[in-house]
Amino acid sequence: MKLTSESTDTPSPQPPPSHSENRPSPLEFERQLVALRSDLLRFARLQLRNDTWAEDAVSETLLAALTKPQAFQGRSQLKTWLIGILKYKVIDGLRQRGREVVLDSGSEDEHADPLEHMAFTANGHFAHAPADWGNPEQELGSQQFMQVMEACTQKLPPVQARLFLMREWLEMSCEEICKELALTPTNLYVQLHRARLRLRECLELNWFASP
Question: What average pLDDT is seen over the chain?
Answer without folding.
Answer: 74
